[in-house]
Write a structure and sequence with these properties.
Blueprint: H1 2-14, E1 21-23, H2 33-52, E2 56-58, H3 85-98, H4 100-106
Parallel strand pairs: 1-2
Length: about 110
């Protein structure tokens, strides 16, 4: 989280007018409940940090990309760690819809 804060501060110093959208951490297929709880806690901390610096945050560890246990849905992934085209379609829609100025710039 500290590295993200430093990166956001540096980006703002170099390019103050450029909008920034940060994506939350994505789950993985075989994630157990305890690591998912830690991922959720980190995402909450990251979201607060990102918003405090004037950037937009899009949470990715949510339905339909993850299942009820918090693991990456096989339907939306190409392997245990990466999204498939269907997953990227969902993620792209979230970025456009929730990504603030970045989403508006990417909208068709």
């Amino acid at each position: 989280a500290r590295r993200v804060a430093m990166l956001l501060e540096r980006l703002h110093e170099l390019h103050p007018a450029v909008p920034v959208c940060v994506l939350g951490l994505l789950s993985e297929r075989d994630l157990a409940p305890e690591p998912f709880a830690a991922l959720q806690r980190f995402d909450t901390e990251l979201e607060l940090l990102v918003r405090a610096r004037g950037a937009t945050f899009v949470r990715t560890a949510r339905v339909p990309l993850i299942d009820a246990r918090g693991a990456l849905e096989e339907t939306f992934s190409s392997d245990p760690l990466h999204l498939a085209s269907e997953g990227y379609t969902v993620l792209a829609r979230w970025i456009v819809d929730e990504g603030g100025a970045v989403g508006r710039a990417l909208a068709p």
